[in-house]
């Protein structure tokens, strides 16, 4: 049986890798969609981070690396609330660590400048990418997280005979979501992913953080209820 300490460390490292590699692709490898890896490359960086960690730590903690996933698993009856809170603490610590590593690397570049949404922070409105409204940002984060959790719940179901490919399906769904959503909010669908960079960026990124906590959690929990009530009979822990 896997210890709670092992699960904590796994979730912390997994979330650190997601933030460092995902946000790092935007900050270091090309953040404007026209140079470097571009929007498609950034999308794949986030998705591939999830795929890599799914196979690295999935057998230890399930590789949630996202508070919205942990809370959705509680709503779906697949996880106890106490364990979810334990996971979330690890995820937030990992996200801050990943953003901290990225901060050290980025600020030691001669042309480094910490803008209002630095380090790949999520945001919306005037000055942020395509300047979508608050409503657009909330709807996008809610719906994208809803879709993301449907994929996760379905691919990890005990009734899914293709469960060995769950990590790949989940990672590719995150790629898809980023391809569509980067220009809207930078794509969070993960409160921890938003918290890490915002702490270092401060300013607008920090003030807009509540939306990137609330919308993904609501979207994930709603997906759990829809999946259990309309798609598959509720599973118990």
From TrEMBL:
PROSITE patterns documented for this protein: MIP (PS00221), PROKAR_LIPOPROTEIN (PS51257)
Identification of the protein by name: Aquaporin Z
Gene3D superfamilies reported in the protein's UniProt record: Glycerol uptake facilitator protein
Family label: Belongs to the MIP/aquaporin (TC 1.A.8) family.
Record's keyword annotation contains Metal-binding: no
Protein localization: Cell membrane
Entry's transmembrane regions: 12-31, 37-63, 84-106, 132-153, 165-189, 209-231
Protein's membrane topology: Multi-pass membrane protein
Swiss-Prot/TrEMBL keywords: Cell membrane, Membrane, Transmembrane, Transmembrane helix, Transport
GO cellular component: plasma membrane
Transmembrane in keyword set: yes
A GO term for molecular function: water channel activity
Location, primary (coarse class): membrane
NCBIfam families associated with the record: MIP
